[in-house]
Amino acid sequence: MKAAGFNVTHVYGLTETYGPASVNDWHREWDALEASEQAAKKARQGVRYPVLVALDVLDPATMQQVARDGETLGEVMFRGNVVMKGYLKNKTATEKEFAGGWFHSGDLGVIHPDGYIQLKDRSKDIIISGGENISSIEVEDALYKHPAVQVVAVVAKPDDKWGETPCAFVELKPGVAATADELIAWCRDHLAAYKCPRHIVFAEIPKTSTGKLQKFKLRDVVKEM
What secondary structure letter does DSSP report for 198? Predict the structure, then answer.
């Protein structure tokens, strides 16, 4: 996008938090970084807007802050006047989402030493394989770097030994070829071995009218595989 002349500002929020609640506030010194390093900085969801009282990454079980190391996974939570009061006529859902006095976003992420948060996955999309948490977004990011990949969605496939393993649905770019073995080998060069997909499915990925990938449909597919 930058090479095409656009300046992207990354914002993040939910309907329940009045749209954007955080912003990736750009630091001038980051302009000196290599393009790939700048892209990694841009990918983070950032810090809270002043109108939001608090934005943090907490352990949902203990409600304690996770380590600010950019690696420890927790749930992104919000607090403040721009956060909704609750779900209309749904006390049960409201109490669940505001457990501990914070709004639980359902988004899993990390917080970096500089205080910027970065999403890693939706809680329902995280893949637990052999007791290890695997971010479907991280696997997708690795596959998107392959020159033949146009669209990719990674979901958990039930596995007798590991509980779940990553399964990648891939749409290739027009006129470009790639094999499943090639894409798996590519992932091994870019990810830890346990994060690599064991299955690659070449198929058109179901999307909404706005282009959002419908992973719930893919989960139904893998259950029948």
Answer: S
pLDDT at residue 123 above 90? no
Given this structure, which CATH class describes domain 127-224?
alpha beta
Mean pLDDT within 21-26: 96
Tell me if residue 30 falls in helix, strand or coil. Answer: helix
User: What would the mean pLDDT of 217-221 be, rounded to a whole number?
Assistant: 92
Q: Which region holds residue 108: left if phi is over 0, alpha if psi is between -120 and 50, else beta?
A: beta
> For the chain, which residues make up each domain, given as ranges?
11-122, 127-224
Q: Are 110 and 73 in contact (CB under 8 A)?
A: yes
In the three-class reduction of DSSP (H, G, I as helix; E, B as strand; rest coil), residue 73 is classed as coil
CB 173 within 8 A of CB 206: no
Task: With a cut of 90, say whether residue 124 has pLDDT above it.
Answer: no
Homologous superfamily of 11-122 = Luciferase; Domain 3 (2.30.38.10)
Q: Output b/e per residue, 184-215; b: 16+ Cβ within 10 A.
A: bebbeeebeeebbbeebbeeebeeeeeeebeb
Q: What is the pLDDT of residues 56-105, one digit of tens each?
A: 999 999 999 999 999 999 999 999 999 999 999 999 999 999 999 999 99
